[in-house]
User: What shape does this take?
Amino acid sequence: RVWAARENGMPLLQLARDYVGQVSAPRAASAAIGPAVLAFLDEKEHLEGAATATVTNLKNRLLPWINREQIGTVGEITRARIESIRTRDGVSPNSRRNDFGAVSSFCTWLLEKGMIGHHPVRGLRRTKVPLGPKHIFRTDECQRLLDAAQTYLGGRWLGTVATMLFVGGARPGEVAHTRLFYGRHPTARIEG
Assistant: This one.
């Protein structure tokens, strides 16, 4: 139905509103999860003004979880299925924490729309993300970077590199993923 409506030119926002309006509280538990996720994402983007990257991130976290847990309806969202995020092997603690946050946000939306009667995430603790040791550039490392900046393109990047190291507090991993651009003014963009 969703794809047919989209092909017929119906705006996704209108489709989402119609869907949420049709699902009454007693029937909400049997509501298909797919249209509910689409409505949630569409509302995030068009009504709340969330950035496209945010909406994409939510989608890329919700849909794999729904598929892994084989959730077909809103009523099949349970604490046990949400807990599975926290115990999933093969992903970093930070990824588990972010996945948990996406599911929590979706559950909050479902509760606000009257599609669930309670918040299944309430009371669950998020995954703790251990803080790793911070690497601070040693004097010799700083000197090597400054020397390289001094010789590269006649020293145009010296000020940028010095700012990144001493004012901006760039970490070694960030410096390793920095791309330098030269236009009107030298510009550094940290990627990765």
